[in-house]
Design brief:
Two copies of one chain form a homodimer. Chain A is α+β, with helices and mostly antiparallel strands and 529 residues long. The first copy, chain A, is built from 15 helices and 17 strands. Helix content of chain A is 31%, strand content 22%. Chains A and B meet through helix 1, helix 2, helix 6, helix 7 and strand 7 of A and helix 1, helix 2, helix 6, helix 7 and strand 7 of B. Chains A, B: This is Aspartyl-trna synthetase.
Chain lengths: 529, 529
């Protein structure tokens, strides 16, 4: 293998540089390169170094035209069938320890780890072993190595039947020596019954303050790959069923739902608001004949709630659908969509679920196909039988929801169900009243492990009834004129719902805090990083 | 077929209603129902009406438990093979005209239209024909009809070889009689050479003020279905290539790129900003080992630009990717992704493209596979040969970009190309300087029909060089501390880019204004509807 390219033409070129700016940039880059060469040189004081040119710190990779071309192998593909092969791996140095004439490195790539060893030998110098044992944790290294079978099994690595016998090692990007958190600590099992239960863990704020490090843990790698799967399954399932994806504005002129909990934006010489949901816009898309629509996007809530399940900004998975005669056409479509998502996660993300399970106590998520539908009154009756009375026109409290989730799980063995026909009094003004019972409404919530993850309903598509209901709720009709007008020119009956993406991932995996499923969470006290 | 359900139990139930709120809702709903029955009754003054129960206005569809169940047929599936069949269609009444004992209705569903006729006969009364001819345009109707072959061809309908002979017609949702714009006017061809060129059109503001109507035109139905296709192709292509979808916060603590053109948000007792791009967050995802990421989401620019191609809020299609030695690994991945999108649009959206072409002068979009890459200096040379001098460290002006687009199209027959190696001086602080030429940078723009739709580069992944460059650009290092810190703990070299979704759709179709490809556009003067 050839040596990493070092650009020898640069000095000549920099002399020609005319602009101050360009010069400065050049200087900083040179300094980085100089550092690199110095590091290397220090190791090379011994002129007899048999490993010269086989290790060191690479110059900053700046896409040099003379850059080498090289195939790299993913750690996850390493297994004993490849034993004997010489290959290159670019990975993080997870840990390193020196022992006599050897250094033992654990290389990490996403959720995978493999052991790499350096032995002083005819081709590997003492200086090279020493260099490798001084590489800071979390640095990115390029390693050339021969893959060797290991009979005993490598403890603590995902690749247990092989190790890498290193012939070259180059630092691509060095980490600062002091880490604000250790990946091992951040990865440590948090299960109550774990033997390591008393060891150091990393608290939530430290994790979030240093999110770039925290996200490198196997569990976090798995959580966010699974989260991407939730979005993909949501969209693919709906696209298959004839839905069209739309995009709705986040900057809106009026706080639609009464004006509470809304963020204000300064908008040129005036002001505007951040949308609390795409509700009105997806309904307009229905009135505009798109028939079935969904949208995935940021949703903002200026609620000063510091709980395990509230964020001020989250990702809404929203859908809306015209129906013919009964909103259950929509409710059951949503239920089937959830079944498709749960099935997809179970079948396509088993590995990710298992990896999360190594750190957190994950109970497998159970669901029925078709999903369970309970009426609100059925739910109240189950709660009453358990000693919790909920009035016929009252909403469920969060503890009541959780209890009902446990009762449903015990009786029906499902972590997902739909609760239909909420009291009219506890739903937004645009909810269609039940035609058969004036106290009820054509609305539903859906739950995962006893927590609400979707709220939805048939919407009022008649402008007169809508105005009436808005007035009743004390909403200034002028402020929602364009919303009401959307229904003046003919609109099919329709229903829909909004889902909190982060909640779905949190509850599917059985995690205890929504900050674990938002890559860069926002709450009343946090807007960094 | 049975009559539409009318709920006869409601009066009894409403007597039992106790809450004021519920009563009010009921009353409004009753009023809507009363209106419906009255409309019907007025038509039925003639006791001899042979069509009684076959037409009228349905009560408001509120998901009655006794609702009929009925299969509906989509207009797009109607063809002469189905002739003779009796079927139900729910569609908009596009136009209606009465002529003697007949009424001719055009029914519209998305981009499809079909003629429906009512003839006075033994089963169709004069009153029914009269009722049908008085239904307001844009109302939604349920029609029962027998499908009949038409030999001559139905002018002005998409379904030319069939028509519907109506046996029942019910208004599901009535439109107000006065429309702020006519769908025919809003759908009229806008091509310079069109025979209808001098007829009434609808101006942009009227369209946007009444977007729910405007979006019903065949061209708009097609544009936004194609736009959904762009997003799907973007995501699917990248997912196939191992990218992970991420979500980045829109509310941020510091205006990252110098503080200009940023919207301020009041955030509880403090203030925050709306992100101008997911730049810093997708880079953090790279530093956090996600390797290849993309994100689709709202992007905000507080620029007071009132042009055909600027919005204050648009949808960003962003991606970022770690590479091994040269940023061209990324640039070419992006180029291939565009080829996949263009191929997908051409193959999967031919009908939509044709429909847009009926209203607007659409030139087919040409592209090469693999795509054309020009160096910035090549581009400058082509411009110089055409008489336009651009300095080696100057940016391209918009007119120069457009001219270059025409020159490239003439020479290479492609509407898409990539321009590589921009001057360092015109790129953001985090752009990697070219190692071989200090005046240049490892950056690229991509163009469709001569307009920029992607800007991208290798980013500086070394914290020291990054700080140096930020200082040079006059950026307060404290404000971007968490960004710079992201690279302190090892980061692979990486590059990426950001794409304006609405621009891609506008330029792919050759439309003249970005407001045509944003469902609810936001500009300095518009934040409604």
């Amino acid at each position: 293998m050839s040596e990493p390219a070092v650009d020898v033409n640069e000095k000549g070129d920099s002399k020609k540089a005319q602009k101050k700016e360009a010069k400065k940039a050049e200087k900083a880059a040179k300094r980085a390169e100089h550092r690199a060469n110095t590091d290397n040189a220090q190791e090379n004081v011994n002129e007899e170094d048999v490993s010269q040119g086989k290790y060191g710190t690479l110059p900053l990779i700046r896409s040099d035209t003379n850059a080498v071309k090289r195939d790299f192998t993913y750690i996850k593909t390493l297994n004993k069938d490849l034993a004997g092969k010489v290959l290159w791996v670019r990975a993080r140095l997870h840990t390193v320890r020196a022992r006599g004439k050897q250094s033992f490195i654990v290389l990490r790539q996403h959720e995978y780890t493999v052991q790499a060893i350096l032995n002083v030998s005819e081709t590997v110098s003492k200086a090279m072993v020493k260099f490798s044992s001084n590489i800071t944790k979390e640095s990115i290294v390029d390693v050339e190595a021969q893959l060797a079978k290991v009979e005993a099994g490598v403890a603590g690595c995902t690749q247990q039947d092989v190790e890498l016998v290193v012939s070259q090692i180059w630092v691509v990007s060095a980490s600062a020596p002091q880490l604000p958190l250790q990946i091992e600590d951040a990865s440590r099992p948090e299960k109550a019954d774990d033997a390591e239960g008393l060891n150091i863990r990393v608290n939530q704020d430290t994790r979030l303050d240093n999110r770039v490090l925290d996200l490198r843990t196997p569990a976090n790698q798995a959580i966010f790959r699974l989260e991407a799967g939730v979005c993909r399954l949501f969209r693919d399932t709906l696209t298959e069923r004839g839905f069209t994806e739309i995009h709705t504005p986040k900057i809106i002129s009026a706080a639609s739902e009464g004006g509470a909990n809304v963020f204000t934006v300064s908008y040129f010489k005036g002001s505007a608001y951040l949308a609390q949901s795409p509700q009105l816009y997806k309904q307009m898309a229905i009135a505009a004949d798109f028939e079935k629509v969904f949208t995935v996007g940021a949703v903002f809530r200026a609620e000063d709630s510091n709980t395990h399940r509230h964020l001020t900004e989250f990702v809404g998975l929203d859908l809306e659908m015209a129906f013919k005669y009964h909103y259950h056409e929509v409710m059951l479509t949503i239920g089937d969509m959830f079944t498709a998502i749960f099935r997809g996660l179970r079948d396509q993300f088993a590995r990710e679920i298992a990896i999360v399970g190594q750190q957190f106590a994950v109970e497998p998520f159970t669901f029925l196909d078709p999903p369970l539908v309970l009426s609100y009154d059925d739910g109240r009756a189950m709660l009453a039988a358990a000693g919790v009375e909920v009035g016929p026109e009252d909403d469920l409290s969060t503890p009541a929801e959780k209890l009902l989730g446990r009762l449903v799980k015990a009786k029906f063995d499902t972590d997902f169900y739909m609760l239909d026909k909420y009291p009219l009094a506890v739903r937004p003004f645009y909810t269609m009243p039940d035609p058969n019972d004036p106290k009820k409404s054509n609305s539903y919530d859906m739950f995962m492990r006893g927590e609400e993850i979707l709220s939805g309903a048939q919407r009022i598509h008649d402008p007169e009834l809508l105005s009436e209901r808005a007035k009743h709720h004390g909403i200034d009709l002028q402020k929602i004129a364009s919303y009401i007008d959307a229904f003046k020119y003919g609109c099919p009956p329709h229903a829909g719902g909004g889902i909190g993406m982060e909640r779905v991932v949190m509850l599917y995996l059985g995690l205890d805090n929504i900050r674990k499923t938002s890559m860069f969470p926002r709450d009343p006290k946090r807007i960094t990083p």
